Amino acid sequence: MQALLRIVVISLGLLVPFAAAQEAGNDFLLLKDGRVIVGKKLTRAEGGLKLTFKNGEVFVPQELIEDCLIAGELLAPASEEEKAQIAKGNVRFEGKWMSVKQRDALIAKRNKERTDAFKALEARKEWRNRAKQTTKHFAFEYTLPDKVFDNYRDLMETYFETFIKDWKISLPRDLGPLLVCLHIDYDAMIQIGGAGQGVLGYFKFIEPMELNFYHDRLDPEFTQEVMFHETNHYLQKLIDLDFSMPHFPGESLAEFYGASKWDPVKKKLSTGLILEGRLCEVQSDIDSGNWRKLSELVSTDGDYDHYTWGWSLVHFLMSTPAYSKKFREFVNALPAGKDVKREGSQVGSEYLKTVEGKEVWRVFQKYLGLEKPEQVEALQGEWYAYIKSNLKLVSARGFEEAARNASGMYPPRPIKAKRLFQTAIEMGSKNPQTYYRYGKLLLEDGGEVDKGIEMLRKAIELDPLNGSYYGELGRALGRKGQKDEAKRLRQLGAEIDPDDPWITILGLEDD
Amino acid sequence: MTRLLLWLMCACAIATLALDVRAQGSKPYENQDFGYRIKAPKEWTQIPMQSTEKWQTAKWLCNRSYFYTESGGGWTYEHKPELVVLAFPTQAARKRAEVEKKEDKDKNVILVIENPYKDYLDYLKRTNNDGGFYVSDEKPIDLKDHKVTCYEIKIEKLTRTGPKRIITWVHHTTLVDYAVQIDVLEDSYDKLKKEVTDTQKSFELLSVSGRLAGAASTGERIEDFVDEDKLTPEQRKTRRVESEKTAHRKAKATVTEGWDVLQVGRFLILSHSDAKFAQRVGEQAEAVFKWCESTFPFVGTNEYVRQPVIRICANQDEERSFFGGGSFFVFGDRMPEIVMHNDQAGFVTSYEVDYLNRTIFSLWFQDRDSNLWWAMPGWLSNGLTQLVEKSRLDKGKLDFRTDVYGRDELRELIRAGNGTKPRELFKLTDSDYVGGGGDQWASRHYQSGALVRHLTVGEGAKNSKSKDVLRNYMKTLRTVVSEIEAAESAKKPVEAAKPKTEEEEEAFFKNKNQEWKKKEQELLDATFDRCFHGWSDSDWAAFEKSYFENV
């Protein structure tokens, strides 16, 4: 379908109205982040498109547009030769000269195909119309546009191969492809996946096994982290299908491999990068004076800190040559070690073995050589030092996360958050959410209003079809006395995001 | 300073009124308020509506269970099909996110947001908690007087009781969209298809009563949050009596055929269970109240305790159906209604009676002295709750039964040398009490149960040194809390200086994070020091010996 959408490449400036081909108002816009906009009038403008809403026009720059279909548009002549041919009554279409009638018939056919393709893409949002594709290791079901999906599919396959090789896992002979459900957004995953609010993705570890996650259009890197994390649970499961990896090291290892990155040029998957979101959480704890004890972390079942401090511990162990091999042996010993005490439980139709926290700690001590308390203390000291000296924020996205963390904690730390947002921007962040959040922070308590407004406008420039940005900008302008413009922006925001009831009330307390 | 309070209310629409004509045998059910008639399948039981319900107008539960077994010999689940008729006023639905702005007496700006369900699918999305669903088919039908949209919905992923199919016909009229929803197990659909279709086809529109046209809001005053601490006991009593009366009146209006209404002591019982069970439940609740009054007479002596409604459903399915998809919530004051079911586990061993005890106890304590309730350290509130939940009325007095599982767990802990000494337990802050996770929390939980038991009905209650420990501790805790409250209110409010640099901000953050725990620890230490003043090491040794032996 994606190929079909690209049959006619529409270039800016080469288009004229083509009255007979389309019904008016049947315009489609496909954005690169996967959104399909239907039913809004599209008009060409320099460098992009204009969308007409009741409360104003919205400009969408070309770099955000994957494709579009404007009712009644036609390719215009691009050269003198074309003009001469047109004078003879001929037209050039797809490299061939032909009569207008032939061309019109072809274009009408193509336009119908494109319209149908767009309609199908729009309809695909419904789970009943989902697309399906099976690869070597996965059976995908998805509601995303193909181009967005293709990237995730390729990444998952590469990731699978890399991990299997790295951990020397022998695949069961009768292992079929894993069902992977990739949802178009968070709400869709919650509704269709059924896991409940707060869940970012899940791996169902009993038969029939299944993986669910969603495409976060504003933060596709986060989607990748979730995807790698959940896929890692599946890969851990492949070590022994009858074994359920304990929360530690299971979740910590999944987080470690969640921070992976694919280099499409070098065709290389790098794993074990800095998981900056988790690092921010660890640093918040440290700022509060709460360092996590090694023995408690490893021996406690189901501890949330396995995602944060556990990740940092695995990062330290996997990245330190003296411990890397020992840690891998520890992980492999949990399902297979002869002297490990395993508990079993019936989960649905399956009987799964696992290891309880206290035993995990005993095995950990044994494989890491921590028989004596002073050895535990020493390793804990090395780990703390590693966190301090080796785990640093490295990307604009990391600084964004740290800033978000600093402004969201109790009590908030706005001064630190502003510095971190500013750093992210100086590092070249193009994330509209960064500008939006920074703008909101600057506007709090009537602080730096003009700079806040500037940031909100930048957020709109980067993502012009996000209703809440207009609502927040309206609130800011309302505080500057521009009541009419504030109202218009709130209404425009509500038009763009009709499902968000909050937009219309932003700033009402000041009215 | 103007503060903004946002109250998001998934409310509005329609107050469910009890003016209906109930199905008798195979007669159709008529709802005159909403103007429709429907014939529920034979032998399906009508379920009462929640008194706060805004969207559901009637529902029935199939008397028969259907079963689903997971492939590969997994678990088997039981499910009873359910029929619900919902009404979505179209005019109200169009008023999306309408906002009412007002100001209270303290100049707080309050935005009351009316955010009704936009349509049936929006309702389903916001209320379904039975696993992931999607619309698998959707088609329009033109009836002679109105249009219908027929939805087939499948619940497939992470279902609680197996994959299901929901068949919903939404009848569109000018004033109301009526959604007739029937859910069945996917495996049972073929068997029930005819019954489902016949029921859907039996829906008829009647003329709508005058009330509906104006029913764009609940028609009731939305209760503001009131700080009860600022009221006098008399004012509190007036409010509570009013809330109690409203709860009783509304609850009575929801009873359907087959339900009994009885008053036992201070409790209004609505029961769909057998009369003997209902009577015992009422007597048990009354006994817990009386025990609280005689054991803790010093707690909130002049306070009025609301007399709750106890609704006893026939079984768990009925209780689940009663709550399902509804809007059981009350803003402001908690509605004194306790919903339970007869779990047929025997009155003495019933977890539902445990639940009743816990809820009654918590209600009594919070109405008498909520500040003391919330100030209680983990070992005390948890321990008391464990003691009361296992109590049963026997020969006119409460018998405090032992939690056998907890006792065995605790014995294991003590044998392994992991028992916490009472002296340490008394001083644990909430975060230390919960500890690092499951094991530690469970250990402290069972120990607090055993300790409170020891002090109230165990050997500790007979020992001259320890028999008054619990009462003294609570009285002392109350005194310390009052002193802190008085000291806080005597302080002139000083706005903390805002940090100006990142360093100041970091120090402020660290200090704030430690502050609460520090205050909590000071409260516990002060209470401990005063309560156990004069206890020597040998007193503690004797007490601890007696406690551990008692376990």
Architecture overview:
The complex is a heterodimer of chains A (511) and B (551). Chain A has 511 residues and is an alpha+beta fold. Chain A contains 19 helices and 19 strands. Chain A folds into three domains: 2-123, no CATH class; 131-390, Neutral Protease, domain 2 (Orthogonal Bundle), CATH 1.10.390; 396-510, Tetratricopeptide repeat domain (Serine Threonine Protein Phosphatase 5, Tetratricopeptide repeat, Alpha Horseshoe), CATH 1.25.40. Chain A has a five-stranded mixed β-sheet. Chain B is built from 16 helices and 22 strands. A seven-stranded antiparallel β-sheet of chain B has the order 5-6-9-15-14-13-12, with helices on both faces. In chain B, strands 2-3-4-16 form a four-stranded antiparallel β-sheet. In chain B, helix 6 runs parallel beside helix 8 and helix 8 (351-375) runs antiparallel to helix 9. At the A-B interface, helix 5 and helix 15 of A face strand 1, strand 11, strand 12, strand 13 and helix 13 of B.
Set out the fold topology.
The complex is a heterodimer of chains A (511) and B (551).
Chain A: H1 2-5, E1 15-17, E2 28-31, E3 36-38, E4 41-45, E5 48-53, E6 56-61, E7 65-69, E8 73-75, H2 80-87, E9 90-93, E10 96-99, H3 100-123, E11 131-134, E12 138-142, H4 146-166, E13 178-183, H5 186-193, E14 201-204, E15 210-214, H6 220-239, H7 247-258, E16 261-263, E17 268-270, H8 276-287, H9 294-299, H10 305-319, H11 321-336, E18 343-347, E19 350-354, H12 357-368, H13 373-390, H14 396-408, H15 414-426, H16 432-443, H17 449-462, H18 467-479, H19 483-496
Parallel strand pairs in A: 12-13, 13-15
Antiparallel strand pairs in A: 1-8, 2-3, 2-7, 4-5, 5-6, 9-10, 11-12, 14-15, 16-17, 18-19
Helix pairs in contact in A: 4-6, 6-7, 7-10, 8-10, 8-14, 10-11, 11-12, 14-15, 15-16, 16-17, 17-18, 18-19
Chain B: E1 4-9, E2 20-21, E3 29-31, E4 36-38, E5 44-47, E6 56-62, E7 66-69, E8 76-79, E9 82-89, H1 90-94, E10 98-103, E11 109-114, H2 120-127, E12 132-142, E13 147-157, E14 164-172, E15 176-185, H3 189-201, E16 204-205, H4 210-213, H5 233-253, E17 260-264, E18 267-271, H6 275-295, E19 309-313, H7 316-323, E20 337-341, H8 351-375, H9 378-389, E21 391-394, E22 397-400, H10 404-415, H11 422-425, H12 430-434, H13 438-456, H14 469-490, H15 502-531, H16 537-550
Parallel strand pairs in B: 1-11, 18-19, 19-20
Antiparallel strand pairs in B: 2-3, 3-4, 4-16, 5-6, 6-9, 7-8, 9-15, 10-11, 12-13, 13-14, 14-15, 17-18, 21-22
Helix pairs in contact in B: 6-8, 8-9, 9-13, 10-13, 14-15
